[in-house]
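Researcher: Next sequence.
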Amino acid sequence: MKIQKNCELWEYRSNWGNLGQLNLGDKLNYLCLLAHLAPSSHNTQPWRFFIDEANKIISVYLDREFVLSASDIDGRQAVVSIGCAVENLICGAKYLGMEPTIKLLTSDKKKVKPFVENEPKITPLLEIKFTEVKPYLKLEKIVKAIFNRKVIRAEYDPQKPVPDEVIDLLKKTTDEKMTKLHLITDSLRRLGIAELQSQADAFVINSPKFSKELGQWFLPNDTANFVGMPGISFGLPDDQALRMHNGLLEKTALQPEDGLKFALAGKIGLEKSPLIGIITTKNDDIKNWLLAGRSFEKIFLTLTDNDIQVAVHAGIIEVPLIKRIFSATLGTTRHITVLFRAGYVKKEEDKNRPHSPRLPLAAVILSDKS
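Model: Next structure:
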């Protein structure tokens, strides 16, 4: 398969040679690369990094222009995405023999909301300082999983459950205090969650504000964009992906069957998945959002390492009324922050869908802190 220019970063694993021989500057750049390959809401890639080689520090920022103004009004999903990036970075650092110390730089939730004029565009979130230690080589397979990881929005085989030994690994990814993992395997509760997802997706499709924003990030399959979601990542052929993109942007009328297929896809995906995972947090704040992202990426990489596919469903989380109903259904007063499904694809060819596009690494590494 030919690698498109906007997906080339996924191939960098074969270009670095012996990682242990890299100098400090190259190691810090490599850690930013690992972070940059994390999943993000609508593939917005809202993270930015500043490398202070002299002090062995990587500072992590949120670019508020990449926070979704309609569907992520609090910046929650953007910060969760950055938590995923941070987990990749931390995992890579430990593998390379660089012990991280993390410092949270802000708890002001106003600073992570979507960008508006006359406010700072870039928000400092974290500072990560490294000290040299012995490399933790057992993490090699997880670092490799970073390059293999991709969201597969396809139908999973409901008759093929996630093995118990993998479930046990997943249960170790949260601390059960700040973050807690809820695993759903019974069909009745899966059906209930799927119905809520269907309602959330229908709300998005029928809301001009939400649907137009989705259309800006839902792209034709031949896109040269470095951000966003090509239709092929949803399993759509070229003509349907283009039609959906134009319809959401109101360039052409959205065909009823396209909107119906979109709303049903999430519902069917959740119904048929043998495992649904929900991450809840103790508090609904920046610190907890980052921790939820880190926990989710640990889960994602663990599942990838075991050849199990993952898809994320954020609609339930960010449509307030449906989120409240979902919380009551789950029987928790904790804050639902991440919802995903996992399983083995029903059609083997779905595993061959391409990775999502990525900005060039230079585009996410800042030249100065200002």
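Model: The longest helix spans residues 76-96. The two ends are 41 Å apart (CA to CA).
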